[in-house]
Amino acid sequence: MQRTGLASTQVRALCLVKGGRCDLPKIPITFAGMPPSAPPQRSTSAVPAVFRAGWVRVACLLWAAGWAGSGALWSQTQPASTGHDAVFGEGVDVVLTDAARFHVLVHSQGAGVGFLRGKYKGAFRTVGWQGDLVFVRHPKEEKTRNPAYEDGLPYVFGKVNAHHALRIQRYREDVTAEKFRKSGVTVAHVQSYGAVVGISKPVYLEIGYPEIPYTSIQVERYDPLVHFSDRIYGRAPWVNGLDSLALNPGVTLGQRLGFEFHDARNTTRTLEAGVQLDVYAMPVEILAAAFVPARRAHLTFTLCYAWGAQWSAKGLDGVRP
Q: pTM of the entire structure?
């Protein structure tokens, strides 16, 4: 093939002028040493290809990594939102450390009073001590009176002892649902276990002598085998028998569900419902054993209302918003 200058070319050109416009058709050019059908070679590079084909993907990855890093930093620098923040507003959230309350309770066999003192173990758990003093009646108790003497106090025929239970328990309260508005309710599960001491006070009655109509009345300890209904004038004052108390130790277990509904940060009002099991070392005789067998285990359903407070023993010193 003949070379002319740098290359041998075959050029065909046609210029058509129509209406003052020049249209130039495509001019095929053939370079020397290159097959006519081979396209011109382009320089390719791996780095430009990444930016041409995957620059959007790379940018998304970098943006996601930056967002994750900033989110982690934000979570470390910003305090976590709590129920107290939602209820009482953002700002200084006092770390509560102590709790105490006084409560009255009724149960399926009586009523009583108690006191509770605990400490916070984290944000949702309280652990402490609880004391209760309740009186316990027998389910079959029924009051009656002497129809011939209406002035006589009513009494329970067959009841030989007035039974009370003094409980000293270790309790744990776990919050299961936190309040997020002032009109909301905090729900908590309370478990307790400990020791119980049964305190039995003998029953004293006023006994009339001789038979009706009585000419004299004496206060005596009730004996169902001696004192029949026609000899009983009425119940004697409660203080009789305090010098003859009998103690009966045992163990106690309790399960309760509590609902706290007060709208102040450091004041609590709580309603609790649950069950309590007392098991004594010896059978508890409330009604005479000749009438009803004595039992060692007493299971009762309880309803409790409490007035309480919760506070921080460390105070507000050093706390910053």
A: 0.70
